[in-house]
Amino acid sequence: MKIESIKDTAILANGVKMPWLGLGVFKVEEGPELVNAVRLAIINGYRSIDTAAIYGNEEGVGQGIRQGIVDAGISREELFITSKLWNADQGYETALAAFDKSLSKLGLDYLDLYLIHWPVKGKYKDSWRALETIYQAEKTRAIGVSNFHIGHLKDLLQDVKVRPMVNQVEHHPRLAQKELRAFCAEQGIQFEAWSPLMQGQLLDNPVLLHIALNHGKSVAQIILRWNLQNGVVTIPKSTKEQRIIENAALFDFNLTPEDMQQIDGLNENRRVGPDPDNFNF
């Protein structure tokens, strides 16, 4: 798959263009650091920002977006903003209200992508009906899910009017999720990675260090490029300008088939986050 610029996009099932690379803001608290990180990302060419209601930082993200738009001299329409429905708000009416609250906190007229954050048993189908309502009202350009396994997706797909366009899950070299990736590809669902760097746990891996040395790149850049060459949208988190810039310097090199194979060989089906089949929030 040829991805040669930060401007390159995946095409979702409904034709909406989603940037391959974005900024994640998980665990970044409200405040100047958050606002500045979002602003810096936009100035440095990022066009996708990913947040969620449970992160408690939608207001700061919205502020950073507004500052970034001004400082980068771009329009809101050039950005791709994602937020997510939290578990406590799942259900039809509660999901509708939660979406409006997120939109208000972000200070936006619409979202580009709205996701169900986790597959809460007995509730995610009602939540999906709410997302379909929001989508049909053109309050979001695309809808999808997060942390859904194949079983959850098969169950959901039995009843949908609008099919999910994205599935955002934990994905990194220790958790390659090949079966889930293949299923999503078959179903026309764009696969997206959260925690692509395994929260820093892979940065001293000898296999990755060797590949990084061969390419004159950092381990983080190697992992993120592996994601892109696998057709995986990725949203690394950082608040530091140097790291934000480094994480986007992925488009002047390609991993070889041998590199890809070596990285694939690191898979251990090991998670840093909860298992979607057995989670408690």
TrEMBL record:
CDD domains, alphabetized: AKR_AKR5G1-3
One Pfam family from the record: Aldo_ket_red
Keyword NADP set for record: yes
Keyword Magnesium appears in the UniProt entry: no
Record: residues binding substrate: 117
Classification via InterPro entries: AKR, AKR5G, Aldo/ket_reductase_CS, NAD(P)_OxRdtase_dom_sf, NADP_OxRdtase_dom
UniProt domain NADP-dependent oxidoreductase: residue ranges: 32-268
Active-site residues, as the UniProt record annotates them: 55
Keywords: NADP, Oxidoreductase
Annotated site, Lowers pKa of active site Tyr, chain positions: 84
GO molecular function: oxidoreductase activity, acting on the CH-OH group of donors, NAD or NADP as acceptor
Family: Belongs to the aldo/keto reductase family.
Protein name per UniProt: Aldo/keto reductase
